[in-house]
Amino acid sequence: MNSNEVTRRKFLRTAMSAGAVLMADGTLGSIARAGETGRAPHSSLLLLTGPRRFAPVKVARNRIIRTVVGLRPYREEGFVVEAERMGNKLLVHNYGHGGAGVTLSWGTSSLAVDIARDHVQTTRVARRSPRRFAVLGCGVMGLSTARLLQRRLGGSVTIYARDLPPHTTSNIAGALWYPTSVYDQQMVSTKFMDQFRAACYLSNRAFQELVGTEYGVRWTDTYESISREDSPNRELPGGAQLYPQTEIFREPEHYFGFPYAQQFSTMMIEPHTYLRALLRDFYVAGGKIVIKDFKKREEIARLKEPIVFNCTGLGARELFGDQKLGPVRGQLEVLLPQPEVDYCYLSGRQYMFPRRDGIILGGTFDHDNWSLEPNAEQTTRIIEAHAEIMK
């Protein structure tokens, strides 16, 4: 047996006994993953056959190069993209994206900038020169909003932020383009779902234009398991049209009891490369950054800019009193990079994303947990779960 590949027989034994997934042999590709929708992920297993070969992930504790923890800004009712008056200012909110901040960034930022554009066109602001905009926050949402303002409305754009890349929550995102963990299906409105679908389409299209090494965006094969009989008829998050080369296999005799298997293509974003490029573009276009940590709305009211965008993520809970917004803690283990690993998989809460800065292993989804300290027990569970997949 080639030591650089995982045998099909060994993989199948592991998958069947552990209820988890992934890997392949010389001519057969075998992978597993469980998708997640709404509030939290669900678990299942997939087995996929085909000519593709899968290099095994070398899962071992001594290959961990860092453990990172981030707090996702989650709302059961979904993200907020809307405007309100604050004295003589227009305040445009763009926050609460759960586990899909990077994924939705261009989409919800586009919707937010559209609100400002309509305001500019229908008020005296249109005759002011130059136009001035303030953006609160310098994560992926703040940078995306700022860049769209520069491109669409011009004028002066200033970002006010406590932290800059690489010290933002966006920098430690897994960043696979896959809009999940955004909302609770039982809590969302029709209006929100219209916004969600529009944001998914706009963001997906925008990321396609950035594919390449400059922005650290690339297409990648992703593998999903489907265990319920009705699951193959469900739409992938955001719409099936956003996932090219999707295939569903219905051959239970080949999948050892799992009747359906799904493969699709989506985009992988390298956060450090991507955010650095956005920050560069913002500066090149004349943008300014002011380091400031706002504590009260009154401080925002004193800004000179007449239109302000709130892209503070979880910070909006205290700054703007949104008690429906809360943290969902996520912990990732990052292993030494493996350039030969060129696919993603997800299985229940376990997922693997190969990036140039390391192999990303997840994950956790802990509601109302504010701790940013790595949890040693979670590290063990993540490593052991992925090690089982790779046996």
How would you characterize the largest beta sheet?
9 strands, mixed
Give the SSE order as H and E letters: HEEEEEHEHEHEEEHEHEHEEEEEH
Q: Helix segment count?
A: 8
Estimated share of beta-strand residues: 25-35%
Task: Give the end-to-end Cα distance, rounded to a whole number of Å.
Answer: 14 Å
Helix amount: 25-40%
Radius of gyration: 22 Å
Count of extended strands: 17
**Average pLDDT over all residues:** 84
Shape: globular
Oligomeric description of these chains? single chain
Q: Structural class given helices, strands, pairing?
A: alpha/beta
Return residue spans where pLDDT drops below 50 for at least 5 consecutive residues: 1-49, 252-258
Task: Give structural notes.
This protein is of the alpha/beta class. Helix content is 26%, strand content 26%. It has helices at 8-18, 101-122, 140-152, 190-208, 271-284, 297-301, 316-319, 376-390, and strands at residues 36-37, 40-41, 64-75, 80-86, 89-95, 132-136, 156-161, 217-226, 247-249, 260-269, 288-291, 307-310, 325-335, 343-347, 350-355, 358-362, 366-367. Strands 3, 8, 9, 10, 13, 14, 15, 16 and 17 form a nine-stranded mixed beta sheet that branches. A six-stranded mixed beta sheet has the order 4-5-12-6-7-11, covered by helices on one side. The protein has a two-stranded antiparallel sheet with strand order 1-2. A hairpin with a 2-residue loop joins strand 15 and strand 16 (358-362). Helix 2 (101-122) runs parallel beside helix 3 (140-152), helix 2 packs across helix 4 and helix 3 packs parallel to helix 5. The two termini are 14 Å apart. 45% of the residues are buried.
